[in-house]
Amino acid sequence: MNGPSQLQSHVGHLKTRVGACWPGSRAVFRGQDLHGDMRGIDWLELYVFGITGRRFSTAEITLLHGIWTLTSYPDTRLWNNRVAALAANARSASVLGLSAAVAVSEAGVYGGGPGLRAIDFFLRAGQAVQAGQDIRSFVHQELADRRIYGYGRPINSTDERLPALVALVKAQHMDSGKHYQLAFAVEEILLTEKKPFLKMNYAALTAALAADMGFTPRQYQLFNILKTLGGMPPCIMEAAEKQQGALFPTPCADVSYEGVGKRAWCS
Known about the structure:
Number of helices: 12
Largest sheet: 3 strands, antiparallel
Mean pLDDT: 94
Helix content: 40-55%
Low-confidence stretches: none
Radius of gyration: 23 Å
């Protein structure tokens, strides 16, 4: 079935496996009664259940909480927080600023973009090692074709989040995962055989942990995109209290312009 007949089969009703609500009666979330079976569920546990359809252990939920909180920085200078704060300082609606900030969190160099590429790398590395390939040869093969994301960091190659994350992983007894171990093995190869500044960063280790917890790249993308969310509201609140237009003002003299010159106005 294709074309109009395929569309006709969807007219007038919604086919869904994820849930629905019946106002005045009940709501079902992936087959479970939201107000009965899932009463009292932790919000993040509900969120990842919605993404994956799986229930995670208490240790895994604790670790997922940690991955979010350890990188929620209320620093308005950060690219995504800056978007949220500038919107608030321009007196835009908070939800617009927050939405825009989340949208740009999936950047190509920072945030979600490298995370997505990192989990793809670790899943393929894990499959290669399981099939008998040496991780060193896999890394060399990967570098011949593309960049490995999650190693190296602008400004300072030391990632201050990793010691706290590693401690949390050990406290939850989740440090024996295949991809978690591979993350350190890859770092050792890059540091000794490639560049000394290619230290592991937060994107690599969190992606490896997600791979150990069974996330697919698409599932991880949905989890990962909100990991800096907690730092945004403080930036919005503070920016809204400042004088309008006073956040990161740029003097005209500081603008370097090399485009088309001043043109005469013709009415």
